Please model this.
Amino acid sequence: MKDLTSTSFGYLIGFVLPGIFGIYALSGWLPQLGVLLQPVFKPDANVGPTVVFLLIAVGIGLCISAARYFVFEKWLYRKRCLPASLYQDPSSDKLAWHKSLAEEHYRYHQFYGGCAVAALIWFAAWLRGQWPFHFQVAYASIGFLLFELLLERSAADCFGKYVEKCKATAGGEAGSPVGKAEKEEVSV
Model:
């Protein structure tokens, strides 16, 4: 059996953990989901329900990752993405380095962004169950917004480091968030 490597850990934090959080978030909207998952949480649970739970978590995690991709990379960070031409005919060293950068930074961006999406789903379900509106709900809402901001800023930081280091690896300048091609376009 394969040992837990940085790649395995990256997939765990990038997809499985946001998927588990997503299942919990969706159970606020779909109470039937909570009933379906009850066998997993029993002390005498066997392997079958646990494997099914993990498979569902991976599926939900992939769906959350798709939402995260569009919200964060296509909308919020669209100016910070890697250009398509960055890795034309890369050497094996550059590919290995890129994989290392993805495991060190991009997986954490996936985790923070996925948790932000799942938290938004959960908060909407919680808020729906809290009507009529009270001051405690207002305080909880402010706390939630601050937590969402923390997750978004963490995702932005990890994604920015990933993009910057990938650009530096592929021939851009280290420490600069803008690659050579982008600088030439700006200076012309």
About this structure: The two ends are 55 Å apart (CA to CA). Residues 92-128 form the longest helix (37 residues). The chain has one domain: 6-187. DSSP finds six helices and no strands in the chain.
